[in-house]
Design a protein that fits this description.
There is one protein chain. The strands form eight sheets. The chain has a four-stranded antiparallel beta sheet. It is about 50% helix and about 15% strand. Helix 8 crosses helix 17. The longest helix is centred in the first third of the chain and has 26 residues.
């Protein structure tokens, strides 16, 4: 301000001096010049004063600067340092705690679908498949197979059930319920900022301890001599299914089928291939009491010629996988005939070729010829004249089963047939009509290594459910043949593991103690669900069962067999009730459930979106 006043004085002095020099007629112009100069100087000084008043210029006063600063804030920084969009704008993404908690909720939702199908008092589910058919079942794998889900974790849980069914054939419901509960136990730790790796490490330690408890609790069984124990085992398995009213019948059929197809490898290890050599034939009509396990095989085919024999005792059976007709070109074949007799010669050559094959077969004197390929009319004529019964276009799997049952060898060329290739193990061949179809029965075989299980029932829905129960029963017997050890059922094993994990968890130090004990709490979901499905007081029953196992552990007893009776809901000794489970099924269930939970907990980012249409 002082500087401004001094400048004004200088201007005034300049003006007075100029007025003395110039004549009076120039005063007006000079006054205009002085006025312009004064305003310019005043604007300059006030501008410099505004800059220097606070020592720095206020940047927010410039509107252009304001807009540039806002754009840089949106970009995440100055040019070159902005946010880079990598994912498609349509992509949905969940990260961190949000993804982990979402996975836990999805797994729990899948478990809630089949939670009521656990135990002998289980409920049924009715499902409509995409083709409009109806499925009524309480088999966990069958239910989840028909459910259409979109969440990736839910799909993973369904794959878990399928893997359990393929591996051991039982425990498909238990593994889903247990895995979901183990995940649910991790939720409070995640909310308390526990790192998933810490939880996974504790779960892995708990898994090793649980498997040790199962090994200590298991008892050995003699598969060949202790048939009563095996029957109780299978009865415990299929007693939870819809077909429990025919339990005794199914138990005997399952044991008989598995014993029939059991073979011993050169190393002395038993081999049981149920899928390939124990075929289940479902024939609507009749009653389930008419069902049986054949000492031989059957298949749905009729003879190729109506005059062929339909009943033969002790037949000689020849199996082929080559056609009994003239050879056809693999591609289009063109023949050019110039003379009339050449056509007859060509037809005669084809007939001679078929006749030669039939003569080679007739030389071995078989009674039955079964081939996987076609049989021409000319071949049927020759075989019928030789009193040989022929079947054509049999499935490869059926042909393999017949070979195992009658002791035959499948031959590829008719000129290489030997006496050792003929099957002589069948006692009776007979054609029978069941419903509207003809079936070929090969019965009374000597030491068959394949069999057919014939199921009769009023409707296809009943037959499908009985077949599922029978498959479970056969898988259980197979598991015991491989690993002859049993564990008590009715939730006794799970409660024993829970009590042991709580006791060991008290000795653990650090942040892993909580998740370790949480696995023991999750194990109680199996007896709790059994009690819920029975309709009894869950809290009172579980508390009483926990007290019995804790008292046994405090007394130093390693084996406590108390569990829940799935029918009445009472707490009983499973050894007295005769409820058992294979060790391999229980171990697979615990392993799969905890390992799957660990895998899902380690997921912290879920990216889902649609690709472009032209991809």
């Amino acid at each position: 301000m002082i500087f401004l006043l001094s400048q004004l004085r200088r201007i005034l002095r300049f003006n007075s001096t100029e007025a003395k020099r110039h004549p009076p007629n120039h005063n007006d112009d000079l006054e205009n010049d002085q006025h312009t100069l004064f305003l310019a100087l005043l604007h300059t000084q006030f501008s410099s004063l505004r800059i220097t008043a606070t020592g720095q210029r206020n940047r927010n006063t410039d509107p252009f600067k304001k807009r540039n600063m806002a754009q840089m804030r949106q970009m995440g920084g100055p040019p070159g340092m902005g946010q880079v969009m990598v994912l498609n704008t349509k992509t949905q993404r969940q990260t961190g705690r949000e993804a982990q908690l979402g996975n836990i909720r999805a797994a729990t939702a899948v478990a809630n679908i089949i939670r009521t199908t656990l135990g002998p008092q289980s409920m049924l589910k009715m499902l409509l498949d995409p083709m409009g058919g109806i499925v009524m079942t309480n088999d966990g794998n069958c239910i989840l197979r028909e459910v259409d889900v979109s969440h990736p974790t839910a799909k993973s849980m369904i794959e878990l059930s399928r893997a359990q069914d393929e591996e051991v054939g039982d425990g498909t419901t238990s593994v889903i319920v247990l895995s979901a509960q183990v995940l649910a136990q991790a939720e409070p730790f995640l909310l308390n900022r526990y790192h998933p790796t810490v939880i996974v490490q504790a779960y892995t330690k708990a898994l090793a301890s649980a498997l040790t408890v199962c090994e200590e609790l298991a008892i050995d069984v003699d598969v060949e001599n202790d048939k009563d124990m095996i029957s109780k085992l299978v009865l415990s398995c299929i007693g939870t299914n819809f077909s429990s009213r025919w339990n005794d019948r199914l138990v005997d059929m399952a044991i008989q089928a598995v014993v029939t197809v059991t073979q011993t490898t050169p190393g002395g290890i038993p081999s049981v291939d149920i899928k390939r050599y124990a075929k289940v034939e479902k024939i609507p009509g009749g009653e389930l009491d008419d069902a049986c396990v054949m000492k031989g095989v059957m298949f749905q085919k009729d003879t190729t010629h109506s005059k062929m024999r339909r009943r033969i005792e002790n037949p000689r059976i020849l199996l082929l996988d080559s056609p009994l007709e003239y050879k056809k070109g693999e591609s289009q074949t063109t023949m050019e005939i110039t003379e009339e007799q050449d056509w007859n010669t060509m037809l005669k050559l084809e007939e001679e070729y078929v006749e030669q094959m039939c003569m080679q077969i007739i030389e071995m004197k078989p009674d039955i010829v079964i081939t996987e390929k076609g049989v021409s009319d000319l071949a049927q004529h020759f075989l019928q004249k030789a009193n040989i019964t022929a079947f054509r276009r049999l499935r490869k799997t059926d042909n393999n089963r017949i070979a195992k049952a009658v002791g035959a060898t499948i031959v590829s060329r008719t000129d290489e047939i030997q006496e050792s290739d003929i099957g002589t193990g069948c006692g009776l061949f007979e054609m029978r009509k069941l419903g509207d179809d003809w079936f070929c029965f090969l019965e009374d075989c000597k030491d068959p290594k394949a069999c057919t299980v014939v199921l009769r029932g009023g409707s296809k829905d009943v037959l499908n459910e009985v077949e599922r129960s029978l498959q479970d029963a056969m898988q259980v017997v197979r598991n015991v043949v491989y690993n002859p050890k049993l564990l008590p059922g009715g939730g006794a094993t799970e409660m024993a593991v829970a009590v042991a994990l709580r006791k060991q968890g008290q000795e653990l130090q650090g942040v892993q103690q909580g998740p370790f004990i949480a696995v023991g709490d999750a194990m109680e979901v199996i007896p709790r669900t059994l009690a819920q499905n029975c309709g009894v007081s869950v809290i009172r029953t579980i508390t009483e069962l926990r007290a019995k196992h804790a008292a046994a552990a405090a007394a130093g007893e390693k084996k406590c067999h108390f569990g829940i009776n799935g029918v009445t809901g009472e707490i009983v000794d499973m050894m007295e009730l005769g409820i058992w489970e294979p060790l391999s099924v229980k171990v697979q269930t615990i392993k799969t459930a905890i390992e799957n939970a660990c895998m899902i907990l380690r997921i912290d980012d879920i990216v889902s979106g649609s690709k472009k249409a032209n991809y």
